[in-house]
Specification:
alpha+beta, Immunoglobulin-like, five-stranded mixed sheet, four-stranded mixed sheet, 3 helices, 17% helix
Length: 186
Amino acid sequence: MKRPIWLMAGSVLLVTGVALSPAAHADLELKGPDDRRILLKDDGTWRYMDAKDNDQAKDKIKDGGEAVLFLERKIEAGNNCRFVVRLVNNEPYEIRSLVLHYSAYRANGLLYDTVSSRSSFAAMRPGNELRREFEFTGIACPDIARVQVVGGDQCDMGDLNKFSRVKGLCLARVRVVESDLMRFDK
């Protein structure tokens, strides 16, 4: 028995409509390995779900077990913008070397530039902290809407070293803390 052509066309339109609906491209909520709720946004960013989760994250910093990166200062220098970050080593091992890169994004979401600091985070024994500076030239601080921590594939920490072949493992061991200065994430 043959189905009418309009019934088949309606089925195709229904499936296409569901696939293209906003629900198919919606944000996704999941639970991290430390049981914190994380919202993965459709635009590729993420954040912790509520203040209780942020309080638990702060408690975890005190307990140890991760490297934590803070954005401490934003310094306007004419048509340039300089930032100061602080890394705290709460890992049970020395961070012998970690090179992070930072990407500046404009308010419209366009990537402006990616830079690194002049020196790596190095020789950081457990419990130590170091500050590093990096600068975006040719763009004023008010024109930067977001700084994203990227890269970090060059590291020597714990069981990771220059022979580790999988990208993203070094950066995965660093937690980037939200900042009141501007949007700062990885």
